[in-house]
Amino acid sequence: MSARIISIVQNLRRRGTQRAAYRYSSMYKEYYSKSSLLAIHGGGRFEGEVRESGIDLFLGGNTAGEKECAIREGAKWGPDMIHIHREGGGEQGILRAAEKICKKIGKKIPIVETNVFARVDRSEKRRLIDVHFLLTKWCLWKWMSWGRDLNPTPVGTVLPYPVDRRTFFPSPKKKINRFKKEIGLKEKNFLYTRVGGSGPSKWKNTTINSFEKIGKKYDKVNLLMVNPPAKIKKGLQALPKKVNSKVKILDEIRDDERLKDAYSASQVFVHSSKIGESFGMVLGEAMSCGTPVITLSTPLRDNSQVEVVGHNEGGLVAANQSGFERSMEMLYKNEKRRKELSVKAIERVRKNYSEKTVKEKLVNRSEKIMWCIKNNKSVSKKFSSEISLNEIDKWVREKLKKSIGKTGFGKRVAMSLLHRPKIYSTFKYVKGVFK
């Protein structure tokens, strides 16, 4: 089946959503030979990379005229399907652009959405979207729970981000030793590492508090923190001198080769975030390099990290501070288990998040959707049988049981309540009033 698929994003700045849109567009091009990308608000840091790939590119800008021109060019390109990428229901500009393309073409073509944060669109325009792609099963549960009162029921399915295994794989020993020497760490010391964006909400003191106990107890350990925000730096500086001397802070690593070496040099990747993850690309990259992950469960926020890592699969899931500390010590002392998890982490990424696996899912879902629209068949019937809300609700509850430490009863009750549409909307309103 030949098809022309246009993807729509806000811009081409080097952020997770935009990079994923580019990766999906590349997959469309590899399979269908033609693919295009429309950036409503203009280009960004990886505009050149997109052009070099051979993907047709339409750039808008800051003015209404520039945006309209890009949309017009996108419509002239003659797409058979539109794939929008947005954080969720609040970003209406991208959906309006898709609607305008359909009007200019003069016929109904499928519109699919990658919904990054599982935010439900309650506007009337939501009916334009045929299928919503959620990054994980956990995201799908959140989205289905919050949208259970909508009529008609929107259609959702899981389509994860791809992890680039051609870039992220275990570095050789010589490169690892060179990296450690360059940043001033001893080759034989045990290394815990955390890499993340500089936003404060993506970090949590759990890692610092846990390492304080590890650092006091064991001599040959280090903690590498890459790109931490000011508040986390302050917390690290406040550690006792004996522990603080074992901490190394680096600025953001933009070079993928050097980032691969950082992952590979680490015995364990430690991850704790206030707001959790809707996917967590750093987790997949670390696992692809053979580094097992310890991640903190955050059931009241985004919590896809527990699924991406998988307890006793790509690493360990900790339910609380105590579980995080125990996990860090467990993998420090148990080399055999650490090595087993290293092998399983690589295999987990290959099986679930490799470009090959994600591309097969992307193409399979896209062709189903285009066939339904072309033949005037129900898209919802094609996808609604994948999983029910009751089934996925049961899966979430079972997932919470798989961890070091237990998720408290209060958290489990709060999680259930906060994923009921009316209660959640009331909670958001009250939170906004007192913010």
Would you give an account of this structure?
- By secondary structure, this protein is α/β, with parallel strands linked by helices.
- It has three domains: 187 residues, Rossmann fold, CATH 3.40.50; 180 residues, 3-Layer(aba) Sandwich (Rossmann fold); 27 residues, no CATH class.
- It is built from 19 helices and 13 strands.
- Strand 4, helix 4 and strand 5 form a beta-alpha-beta unit.
- Helix 1 crosses helix 15, helix 3 packs across helix 4 and helix 6 crosses helix 10.
- The longest helix has 20 residues.
- The termini are far apart.
Using brief descriptors, characterize the structure shown.
48% helix; Rossmann fold; alpha/beta; 435 residues; 3 domains; seven-stranded parallel sheet; six-stranded parallel sheet; 13 strands
Brief digest:
The protein has 435 residues and is of the alpha/beta class. It has helices spanning 16-32, 47-52, 64-76, 92-105, 137-146, 173-182, 206-217, 230-237, 241-244, 256-264, 281-288, 305-309, 321-333, 335-352, 355-374, 379-383, 389-401, 409-418, 421-433; strands at 5-9, 35-39, 56-59, 81-88, 111-119, 131-134, 156-158, 190-195, 221-226, 247-250, 268-271, 293-296, 315-318. The protein folds into 3 domains: 5-162 and 355-383, 3-Layer(aba) Sandwich (Rossmann fold), CATH 3.40.50; 173-352, 3-Layer(aba) Sandwich (Rossmann fold), CATH 3.40.50; 409-435, no CATH class.
